Amino acid sequence: MPHASATHRRHSLFRPLLLAVAGALVATATLTLPHLTPDASAATTLRGYADGRGVKIGAAVGDGPLTSDGSYASVLDREFNSVTAENAMKWDALEPSRGNYNWAAADRLVSHAAAHHQGVRGHTLVWYSQLPSWLKNGGFSASQLNTILKNHIDTTVGRYKGKIYAWDVVNEAFNEDGSMRGSLWQDKLGTGYIANALRWAHAADPAAKLYINDYNTEADNAKSDALYALAKQLLAQGVPLHGIGFQSHFTVGQVPSSMKANLKRFSDLGLEVSVTELDIRIPMPASSAELAQQSTDYKTATENCLGVPRCAGVTVWGVSDRYSWVPGTFSGYGAALPYTESYAAKPAYTGLSNGLNPNA
Ligand code: XIL
Description:
By secondary structure, the chain is of the alpha/beta class. The chain has a single domain (40-356), classed as TIM Barrel, CATH 3.20.20.80. It is built from 16 helices and 10 strands. An 8-stranded parallel beta barrel has the order 1-2-3-4-5-6-8-9, surrounded by 6 helices. Helix 13 links the parallel strand 7 (249-251) and strand 8 (272-283). Helix 14 runs parallel beside helix 16. The longest helix has 31 residues, at 2-32. It is globular. The N and C termini lie far apart (60 Å). The chain binds (3S,4R)-3-hydroxy-2-oxopiperidin-4-yl beta-D-xylopyranoside.
């Protein structure tokens, strides 16, 4: 009993103080709430800043997380005004056996995007990788391959006509030394497949911006020089090329110092430029210094695009470290994205946000 009354007395003593604190909190909430209108808070999301600048902030989306992880979808829809299918629009996903298309996952993403007022980047039509085996190992002649490629572009671009604002028509066509990378297309059709693919895609959806996309082209180097020469030549020939995608799969601390000037030379050709697959990997385990450097790198990479005329936007290759291609591809690396595995915003999120916010 004495114990109980002591407890009661303590409560009685503190009650006025507690009421005062609660009252102050209510007053504060009442004072601040009117400022939290939906518009004002939207401006503090990534997509709020991007919308304000008329650019896209995108994320690569996996069909698995989109359909099974509500937390993932809610962050995606709150923060991003553009999406790219991480795998669902690649040839092996769309046409696993010849003539049998599987549109389900790609359709899901396109309708999800429409419902959440997000644009869609199409990825990708012509690539050496993620081809179905019937195509890769089919032993087709040049003329057969030409027809197969045209049909694929007509069918895929045609299906999403008016729903995809930009297509990565050709992906990863170059070697590091600037020569053309060997591939099913290059080896059988020669470099002319690139102009043909762009022309077919343009006929199938005249409104879509058509891109050539690659990695390790962010710096001024042999590979980006070759890409620049090809872009210039295609434009001179009147080929419908509208943009260059810079994948930007970086390692922490290594955003190339020539990136902005390099993007600018493409923009000076009259082309759009976009960062299409940004992620910044860290050797695991990530230290707090590395996470801080990663934040700076996200800001710099974003500014390197937005600081150039005709930058259409920045896409991050994923949302959360819970689902990222990095650990499975770059042994010993991870933590490459703006959100942790449990959807906490990392310093990288702040860097990305500050890169988009013109007043940061
Ligand atoms: C990656 C996906 O993230 C992985 O899930 C898949 O297993 C392999 O492809 N460059 C590209 C992207 O253009 O399509 C790649 O995406 C990453 C590198």
